[in-house]
């Protein structure tokens, strides 16, 4: 996961560690606690992946919108130049 902030990455890392620790809890005779810990840790990791995917999609949309904005503004600018030329040509007559 590369799009996560440092605190988010730290939480994901702790979730990974909790999954490993859950194995030790199970070996120590606490299977229900281990199962619940694994579920909570997996939920954190799933949420981190969803957050990363959402950020990636948002950045992609922002880049695409910026490109469309550039295209539209270029067309508007060119139309303004053409209109200025028409006005100048009429004034020269």
Tally the helices.
2
Strand-residue fraction? Answer: under 5%
Helical content band: over 70%
Mean pLDDT: 94
* Largest beta-sheet details: none
- Ranges where pLDDT stays below 50 over 5 or more residues in a row are none
Oligomeric description of these chains: single chain
Kindly report how far apart the N and C termini lie.
Answer: 66 Å
The helix-strand sequence is HH
Gross geometry:
rod-shaped
CA gyration radius, whole angstroms: 28 Å
**Helix/strand/pairing class, anyone?**
mainly alpha
The tally of beta strands, per DSSP, is 0
What does this structure look like?
The protein is an all-alpha fold and 93 residues long. It has two helices and no strands.
Summarize the structure.
The chain is mainly α and 93 residues long. It has helices at residues 6-27, 31-92.
Question: Which features would summarize this protein structure in a list?
Answer:
93 residues; 2 helices; rod-shaped
Layout of helices and strands:
Elements: H1 6-27, H2 31-92
């Amino acid at each position: 996961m590369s799009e996560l902030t440092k605190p988010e990455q730290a939480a994901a890392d702790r979730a990974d560690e909790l999954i490993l620790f859950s194995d030790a809890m199970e070996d120590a005779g606490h299977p229900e606690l281990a199962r619940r810990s694994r579920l909570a840790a997996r939920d954190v990791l799933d949420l981190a992946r969803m957050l990363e995917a959402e950020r990636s999609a948002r950045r992609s949309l922002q880049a695409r919108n910026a490109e469309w904005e550039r295209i539209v503004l270029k067309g508007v600018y060119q139309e303004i130049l053409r209109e200025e030329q028409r006005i100048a040509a009429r004034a020269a007559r």
